[in-house]
Amino acid sequence: MRHNYCFILISLFFTYSHLNAQETIVFVYDQGGNQILRTFSEDFTFLRAETENEKETKQALAEEETEILSEDSNLRYYPNPVDDVLHMQWQNNENTFLAEVRVYNLTGQQLQVFVMDFNDNNLNIDFSIYEQGVYMLNLYYSNGEVTSIKAVKA
């Protein structure tokens, strides 16, 4: 009889430790849903802390990841891909200035128009109202020049 109790206790111990081991497997996925990491961990709360700070980290790095339209252009825009707001900054010169910005989806539908004057040197475009996808921004200058940039909504 005593032998049966020992067997039951040992069985319960191994069963519990086996269940506990499965709870410590941590899976990490990319935005496409693909598994990129599988690891064993005693304490997996560190992953939760990283995801809470992810948005703050993206914003802090956004200015470092500024995209420049071209080497001779004064236009900068960030972040790209954009989650909520696309920030644009530029410098006007004496001869020409950014007069208008138009936002288009890939089907060519015009979504928004922003009219600028010579004193404007920045624009924040709210992308939270758009679905995920690729958007074209056409920049119209006072001298008739038109430039396009691509923004990805994540």
Detailed description of the structure:
The chain has 154 residues and is of the alpha+beta class. It folds into two domains: 2-60, no CATH class; 64-153, Immunoglobulin-like. The protein is built from two helices and ten strands. The chain is elongated and about 95 Å long. It starts with a helix and ends with a strand.
Task: Record keyword descriptors for this entry.
154 residues; alpha+beta; Immunoglobulin-like
**Low-confidence regions:** 44-50
* Order of SSEs: HEEHEEEEEEEE
CATH class of the largest domain reads Mainly Beta
Using the 3D structure, state the CATH architecture of the largest domain. Answer: Sandwich
The share of residues in helices is: 25-40%
Structural class: alpha+beta
The helix tally amounts to 2
Stated plainly, the CATH topology of the largest domain is called Immunoglobulin-like
- Alpha carbon gap, first and last residue: 65 Å
Query: How large is the share of residues in beta strands?
Result: 35-45%
Average pLDDT figure: 75
Basic shape:
elongated
Cα-based radius of gyration, to the nearest Å: 26 Å
- In CATH, what is the homologous superfamily of the largest domain? Immunoglobulins
